[in-house]
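Possible regression after last week's pipeline update?

I re-ran a chain I had predicted before the update to compare outputs. Posting the input and the new output here so someone can diff against the archived version. Not blocking, just want to make sure nothing changed silently.
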Amino acid sequence: MRKAITVNIDIRTISRFGVLLGASALVLAGCASTEASSAEAAPAADVVTISDGWVKAADEGMSAAFGELENTGPEDVTVVSATTEASSMLELHETVENEAGEMIMREIEGGFVIPAGGSLDLEPGGDHIMLMDLADPLQAGDEVTFTLTFSDDSTYEFTAPVKDYSGANENYEGDESDMDMDMDMGEE
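New output (post-update):
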């Protein structure tokens, strides 16, 4: 024998339950969305590191900084400038072929782009941070502290040792007198 069960549910109770479920879903979705956007919106300085950084020893004039910049974030980041107390003028340089087929170094338009989840090598004969008008001689064993600024205005500071280094002479764009600066930046 079956018994009928009668449940009296008030329409207001159903409405309240529905509203409560809807609000809970929105709160949960909002939390997930906030977590996802925070990971994507992390400042570039929080996702970039440098390894194997070093600076070329120089008595005066110019030098350069090298290393591997790594981006662990989900989006490309762009280094737009660098500063250091070791030099009054720094530029982010790239190596390109000019119209005559010569490899020259020049300031890179827009800065260095470090791909999402990837790295960018700063190396002799390639991309590098150029120090011009050195404040003092840079001797092997010294350390130089740099601050990188990214396109999102966040900054990252790192310190690199100064090393003796000799290599090939490089040409620089921008001076009508064929600016061969005796900047030894070829292979060790």
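Follow-up from reviewer: compared with the archived run. Confidence is low (pLDDT under 50) at residues 33-39, 175-188. Marking as no regression found.
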